[in-house]
Amino acid sequence: MFKRLTTIAAALVLSVSAATASAAYPERPITIVSPFPAGGATDVLTRILADRMSKALAQSIIVENKAGAGTTIGAAYVGRAAPDGYTLLMATNSTLVTNRFLYKSLPYDPDSFAPIGMVGIGPLVLLANDKHGFKSTADVVAHAKQRPGSLTFATFGPGTSSHLAGELFKQEAGIDLLHVPFKGATQALPAVINGDVDLFFDMVATGMPQVEAGKLKVYGITSKSRLATLPDLPTMSEQGYPAFDLTAWFSFVAPHGTPPDVLETLQKALVTTLQDPQVRQKMLNMGIEPRSGTASELTRQISSEQPVIEKLVQQAGLERQ
């Protein structure tokens, strides 16, 4: 009897200790892992949000870059982290949706993360260097048809939104392009600018400054409708490819087993951050539409997008790596 009471008392002490620790969250700096290199759109967005969320949480937030392998390196790192709310992941559609259809095995489980909230969504732009003198998307397609397989396209890595955009372009235009993967935009852009790679579907935030500087040409945007900040840039759909409606999206997730009250604290801080007018304007300037910051929207986004991406991967004939 005494042994049983001792066991119960010990369990209660542990329960109270856990509750107290959780209630005090966050007591120390939080790390958000960005699965892309520093300087890219995902990294920039993560740092904008981290700066404002740190104020909402009254605690420092550190952004750590763990890039490569289509976000799998960063995702695996966070997946192995302690579920205490101190290591989070900026997860993209590659992380939570696409990778499951492109890899035979993953170093993480896309379904195991605890959702914090949906952050934002944004289209990509079709870029090219001036090596071939393309004036339009039609010129790109004409060249590709005349010389099948001669044009290359850069991406953030296998399974990323830029990769899927390139594959969709190949399908819609009936052309053959050679995929050249990089770790992120900061690695891909110099290769495109130098003429080592011909084409690149990049995020607005990193691609358009190169266009404005006269280093690259831009021909279209991957969303169904034009972007308010780029009203003169036609969509790929407008240019004769009606099925072109592809965007990149961003979210925050935590390791499986993170306490519900910690997740709630993080979600409230994220919602507050996404309601901040300065944060919203910075995101819009990047070509990213702020979303609700809720876990329910993120769950719906994952669920609705899975069959669409699975079909695209199958139609593109992409084999699991």
From TrEMBL:
It comes from the Bacteria. Pfam families: TctC. Residues 1-23 form the signal peptide. InterPro entries: BUG, Bug_dom1. Keywords: Signal. Belongs to the UPF0065 (bug) family. This is MFS transporter.
